[in-house]
Write a structure and sequence with these properties.
The structure is a single chain. The chain contains 48 helices and 28 strands. By secondary structure, it is an alpha/beta fold. It has six domains: 220 residues, 3-Layer(aba) Sandwich (Rossmann fold), CATH 3.40.50; 87 residues, Enzyme I, Chain A, domain 2 (Orthogonal Bundle), CATH 1.10.274; 114 residues; 211 residues, Rossmann fold (3-Layer(aba) Sandwich), CATH 3.40.50; 161 residues, PCRA, domain 4, CATH 1.10.486; 146 residues, Lambda Exonuclease, Chain A (Alpha-Beta Complex), CATH 3.90.320. The longest helix is centred in the first third of the chain and has 36 residues. It is globular. About 3% of the residues have low confidence. InterPro entries: AddA, DNA_helicase_UvrD-like_C, DNA_helicase_UvrD/REP, P-loop_NTPase, PDDEXK-like_dom_sf, PDDEXK_AddAB-type, Restrct_endonuc-II-like, UvrD-like_ATP-bd. One of its GO terms (molecular function) is ATP binding. Heterodimer of AddA and AddB/RexB. Its EC number is 3.1.-.-, 5.6.2.4.
Length: 1236
């Protein structure tokens, strides 16, 4: 951009001086051009580049800045006819190479090398740049510090260790110490920051509610939550306006009254009084209207009300779980733990510093701290150096100022002058997305607000709002979203007129394409014929949807405007960039795009240690070190390195079923007899023999050579490196394997040796979800790019897809046993002597604080994503049910202001919900999607153009059923014709054609399994008089699933976050009690209690489940006619009887016509009475009977289980050779016996 094209605001930022200047430069506003032009103008007016300090965020930015300044200076040399100026400019060009245009780290290194003597630092040092070496060193130092502390047997350290560790190890303590160390490093005074951490817990007031901590930190959180609940309930009350909602209105009004009482108490009452009120809240049952149309409205009201109820109840469990004295006790005990933690962290820091000094190495944090020590030295020489530096630099320019931290700010401030100020800062706080690197956007925000005050004399704020990057609609869309989302309360700054983007790229054509919102609905009902078209998971469907949209762009020749040539042109693949929040789905994108024949380049590989090829290599290294590890061994045997399938793995294990898997492998190999072995065994043997020979070879190399020699020998011997090159994403996979070799090299160069230590090091990193960075892969031209939003910052792309916008924000750090904040310190979970974990009140408040900061960071991340687009913006997401998403978005109508309600914005957990809520009040939103008549006129004049498109699996696959077979037949015909044209014998031709046209006779049998459970096929047996039993259509996905079961596996219990038992848990436990209860006499409440206690003590059921078992329901069963009959003849009773039976496959599946095909059915019968000439079957059910009409509800449950009981009857008849006289369902919830 030439100087004549600068806007007035840009010109102001270029020429203003003699004061501190903060330039708030919005996305695409040309801040780099402004910064370069300011440097040029200073040089042209007599300043020297040697007297400027220009600080950039990255080395690449520094190089780019230097190159642009050089180019501008050369142009100035060519233009001027002033000989003296020409010579001076040439001298400036020569000085550019040594000018202070660099990252802050590079500048600090320069200071240290020059003034090391001021801090008594040995000048002979090297920089610890490799992450592998740094991680190894920190782990080694921590291990030494930890062992030393263990040896002291200090009670305080023992309590600290228990507080942050678990039964698997003390990595939890290592993690919190490491995190505290990182936070301390970002401050000018680390020791002081650590020492003040316990002060947060020093609440010494008699009453908690009168303390500053409560008034300043707790009360605002409670008040904000209660206000939002009130707004939600009032909105629901407005919806319940008709007579049919009279009962609903009574309930909502009562709850609003209770809410008002709570709101008054939290502001004025004592702790225990507030707690008592919250714990005593009563919530009545909502009864909905009969009218079908009103039921739709009622569903939304009920969802909102239940969410309010949940939030209100959570106030009691979150903040008021303990009474006042208990809360104070926990605070005081936690203060001691935090004091010890701060002390241990300081000991670790000292030990780490000593180790680095001994090794003569510095890490990046040392650069900043040592530079700060130099600049704050109180010695005579130190003061002299500071004055020299301040006099030397006429101006200090800082790019990306919003990403600095407190320590970096302190370094810069020591170099500046006060009268006049000479600090020039450029950045955009809306693009501050490096909180995880401890960037502090509040530094920018404070100056931004301070410098805009009418009488501000300490600095000037200049706003660059024009966006010269994007078409008008992208700018309008961004403003539409953020003027409703971002303010000080939630986004940490107001998105006001000054912050809004102004359209500056006026060279674009007026006609522009609307922003597209692409939604994939994953949880839809499909017919059996369509099941084969349903993607395996939601992300697969979403990626397929995006792939098809990209194909349509290319094949239909959709256009972009070429700004350089001033003409329209077709979109190409390299115009398109997919922005992702995480890298977890990158391999899926590569796979699906490969199937669609879309070229793609992934700029951010999936997490390095999670890549399949790296996991295989690490498994191989583990078994080279110790082959008696079943999981790594099987992983290698199953991998392409050996190539066994599941059947072969099972065959090997049969050889030795009691020892480790490697023993079974050796047994098979040693006992193999070529004369008696089958062909199948021979095939396995050849692979195992080769594997064992290679394993012995690798062991020998590992013992006698370096690790890198071993890894490279594995690549050459197995051909694994070449193999992965032929897989999807082959270049990246090969780059990953090369990187493993390089990282092993670095590992051994860091004085750490041996295969075992290397494997252990990698395992530690994986446990802590750490990575060593990604391996760069070669890129190709004209491909779709995939990169993270963070990596895209500072870049721009013609077409942007924001992928997986419904991906939930990462809240992992809020779930840990500690929460850290640079300003407020640390909140911990305290472990009592009884080993009960209690979240301290300080942690709960910090959790809210950090969550709000995280939400603000996510908002800024969304801003960065949207503003990368030049001409096309497409936002993509997936919901199970779109109508549920729309109902959630409609909460936006609660606000009659431009900003959405505070609490809603703060609680939203994905980009798409923010966007949806911001669009739904716009009159251009498709009203056919709405379930409310609410309107808001505040956006009636908004110029934004957008469209929402909803796709399902059926939409994605429309037309494929007809197209694909035709393509297959065409290929088959081509191959057949090629065979006919070949000069080979007729008999051989016929044999080849027979193979090409071969049709397997039993295709139907491949579409199911020979094993089904009762619950999976129970609907086929609902009518016992139907001899055909009904038939199922095949689910083609059974090939992968194995049976007709749910695709979702239950979460392992140890991973479950909630401790509330599910209805299924309680039902299973109830069955156990009925199964084991002694029936030789009439059961009593004491007898039932003894059984439950015995099961709980034996850990067969949990205590929580035991408490929820309904004792009276169990006793009521034995008062029924059937129960009395059982008690009269308990010897005839059979309980929990397993069975298996074979059924003809043609009875189950319409496609199985072969009468010899059999299916194995299995199940467990709750109980039956076997009489002399018949049997009586019964089955317990613990299902809740819901609804106003109990008769209908009971019939619904009966219909649900009718097929299951009928199948039990058929099995029982075969087992006993006796007719089944009666079949009963007993519903414990309503004490009702129903005959089937």
């Amino acid at each position: 951009m030439s100087a004549t094209n600068f806007t007035p605001q840009q010109q102001q930022a270029i020429i203003d001086q003699d004061q501190n200047i903060l330039v708030s430069a919005s996305a695409g506003s040309g801040k780099t051009s402004v910064l370069v032009e300011r440097v040029i103008q200073k040089i042209l007016h007599g300043a020297s580049v040697a007297n400027l300090l220009v600080v950039t965020f990255t080395d690449a930015a520094a190089k780019g800045m230097r190159d642009r300044i050089q180019q501008a200076l050369r142009q100035a040399v060519d233009k001027t006819k002033d000989y003296e100026l020409k010579q001076r400019l040439r001298m400036e060009i020569n000085q550019l190479g040594i000018a202070d245009i660099s990252t802050l780290h590079a500048f600090c290194l320069h200071l240290i090398k020059r003034y090391y003597y001021l801090i008594d630092l040995d000048p002979q040092f090297r920089l610890l740049t490799d992450s592998t070496e740094r991680i190894l060193l920190t782990r080694s130092v921590w291990d030494e510090v930890r062992e030393t502390l263990y040896a002291t047997q200090d009670a305080a350290f023992e309590q600290l260790t228990q507080n942050f560790s678990n039964d698997r190890g003390d990595d939890g303590l290592a993690n919190v110490v490491s995190q505290l160390d990182s936070f301390a490093n970002a401050t000018p005074a680390p020791q002081q920051w650590l020492q003040q951490l316990p002060q947060l817990y020093a609440v010494n007031d008699v009453s908690i509610t009168k303390s500053d901590f409560y008034q300043q930190q707790v009360l605002p959180v409670l008040t904000g939550t209660l206000q939002q609940i009130s707004a939600d309930l009032n909105a629901s009350l407005m919806q319940a306006s008709g007579d049919e909602f009279s009962k609903v209105k009574v309930v909502l009004e009562d709850e609003l009254m209770q809410l008002d009482e709570v709101s008054e108490l939290v502001s004025s009452a004592a702790w225990n009084e507030i707690r008592a009120k919250l714990l005593s809240l009563k919530f009545s049952r909502l009864y909905g209207p009969k009218d079908e149309e009103a039921k739709v409205i009622f569903a939304g009201i009920k969802d909102t009300r239940n969410e309010c109820k949940k939030q209100l109840q959570s106030l009691a469990t979150t903040y008021f779980a303990l009474d006042e004295q208990q809360t104070l006790n926990v605070m005081h005990a936690s203060q001691k733990v935090v004091t010890t933690l701060a002390d241990v962290t300081w000991q670790y820091r000292q030990a780490y510093q000593a180790e680095k000094q001994q090794r003569h190495v510095l890490d990046f944090s040392d650069l900043e701290h040592y530079a700060f020590d130099i600049l704050t030295s109180n010695s005579t020489d130190g003061q002299s150096v500071i004055k020299q530096l301040q006099a030397h630099y006429s101006e200090i320019m800082v790019d990306e100022y919003q990403d600095t931290n407190q320590l970096q700010e302190s370094i810069l401030q020591t170099l500046t002058s006060d009268h006049p100020g000479n600090l020039f800062m450029v950045g955009d706080v809306k693009q501050s997305i490096y909180q995880f690197r401890l960037a502090d956007p509040s530094l920018f925000l404070r100056k931004y607000e301070q410098y805009q005050q009418p009488k501000a004399d300490d600095g000037e704020a200049i706003i660059l709002a024009e966006n010269f990057r994007s078409v008008k609609n992208v700018t309008d869309f961004t403003n539409l979203i953020f003027k409703q989302l971002m303010d000080k309360k939630v986004g940490e700054m107001d998105y006001d007129q000054a912050a809004e983007l102004k359209y500056g790229a006026t060279d674009y054509p007026e006609e522009q394409v609307p922003t597209e919102i692409l939604l994939y609905e994953s949880n839809i009902t499909t017919s059996p014929d369509e099941l084969q078209l349903v993607p395996d998971d939601k992300m697969t469907g979403e990626v397929q949807m995006v792939g098809q949209r990209i194909k349509a762009m290319i094949e239909q020749g959709e256009q972009l405007y070429d700004r350089e040539n001033k003409a329209m042109r077709p979109i190409t693949y390299d115009d398109i960039t997919l922005l992702v929040s995480t890298r977890n789905n990158n391999n899926l994108i590569v796979e699906q795009f490969s199937r669609l024949e879309i070229p793609v380049t992934v700029n951010d590989a999936q997490n390095y240690f999670q890549a399949t090829e790296i996991r295989i290599m690490m498994s191989l290294l583990r078994i080279i070190d110790n082959p008696y590890q079943d999981i790594p061994l099987v992983a290698v045997l199953r991998s392409p390195i050996v190539g066994l399938d599941e059947n072969a793995l099972a065959y090997l294990k049969i050889q030795n079923q009691t020892d480790e898997y490697f023993a079974a492998v050796l047994s098979f190999h040693d006992q193999f007899d070529v004369n008696t072995a089958s062909d199948y065994a021979q095939q396995i043997y050849e692979k195992i023999d080769r594997f064992l020979n290679q394993l012995n070879q690798f062991k020998l190399i590992a013992n006698q050579n370096r690790l890198v020699k071993l890894i490279w020998d594995i690549y050459e011997t197995t051909g694994f490196l070449d193999y992965v090159g032929g897989m999807p994403g082959g270049r990246q996979r090969q780059a990953n394997l090369h990187a493993l070799y390089e990282r092993a090299h670095v590992y051994e160069d860091s004085s750490f040796k041996g295969l075992f230590q290397f494997v252990r090091f990698i395992e530690q990193m994986q446990r802590q979800n750490q990575d060593l960075g990604e391996a760069p892969a070669q890129t190709t031209n004209n491909t779709v790019s995939v990169m993270t939003i963070h990596a895209s910052k500072g870049l721009e792309f013609p077409v942007v897809f924001l992928m997986d916008a419904t991906h939930h924000f990462n809240k992992d750090r809020l779930r840990q046993d500690y929460i850290l904040d640079a300003r407020d310190g640390i909140g911990i979970t305290y472990l009592t002597d009884e080993r009960v974990k209690i979240d301290t009140l300080q942690k709960q408040i910090l959790k809210d604080t950090v969550n709000r900061k995280d939400q603000a960071e996510q908002m800024r991340l969304l801003y960065v994503a949207l503003t990368r687009a030049e001409q096309r913006l497409l936002i993509v997401g997936t919901y199970p049910k779109i109508d549920q998403a729309i109902n959630n978005w409609q909460r936006a109508f609660q606000s009659d202001q431009m900003q959405l309600p505070d609490q809603i914005r703060a609680q939203t957990n994905n980009f798409m919900d923010w966007i949806g809520m911001s669009l739904i009040r716009n009159p251009k939103f498709d009203t056919n999607l709405l379930t409310t008549d609410a309107v808001w006129s505040g956006l009636s004049g908004d110029p934004t153009s957008f469209k929402v498109k909803i796709s399902t699996a059926k939409d994605l696959n429309q037309g494929d059923e007809d197209k694909q077979p035709d393509e297959d037949l065409a290929i088959q015909d081509q191959l057949t014709q090629s065979v006919s044209d070949m000069d080979i014998e007729q008999s051989s031709q016929e044999a080849i054609k027979q193979v090409l046209h071969f049709n397997y006779q039993h295709v139907a049998a491949t579409m199911t399994t020979a094993y089904q459970s009762v619950s999976e096929i129970k609907r086929l047996f609902e009518d016992p008089d139907n001899s055909q039993l009904g038939q199922l259509e095949f689910d083609p996905s059974a090939r992968q699933k194995g049976r007709y079961v749910s695709a979702d596996l239950g979460q392992p219990r140890f991973m479950q976050k909630t401790t509330i038992p599910s209805a299924a848990d309680v039902g299973t436990a109830t069955h156990l009690v009925l199964q084991t209860l002694d029936l030789q006499q009439q059961p009593t409440i004491e007898a039932v209690e003894q059984v439950i206690t015995r099961l709980a003590v034996a850990n067969t059921i949990t205590k929580e489940v035991a408490q929820r078992i309904n004792r009276q329901q169990i006793l009521q069963f034995f008062k029924t006619e059937l129960g009395q009959q059982i008690l009269l003849q308990p010897q005839r009773l059979k309980r929990e009887v397993p069975f298996s039976m074979l059924l003809n496959g043609s009875q189950l599946f319409a496609q199985l016509s072969d009468p010899t095909e059999r299916i194995l059915i299995h199940g467990i019968i709750d109980g039956y009475l076997e009489n002399d000439d018949n049997v009586i079957l019964f089955d317990y059910k613990t299902d809740q009977v819901r609804g106003d009409n109990q008769t209908q509800a009971v019939e619904k449950i009966v219909q649900r289980y009718r097929g299951q009981v009928n199948l039990y009857g058929q099995a029982l008849k075969q087992m006993t050779n006796k007719p089944v006289a009666h079949k009963y369902l007993y519903l414990l919830a309503v004490n009702q016996l129903v005959e089937i």
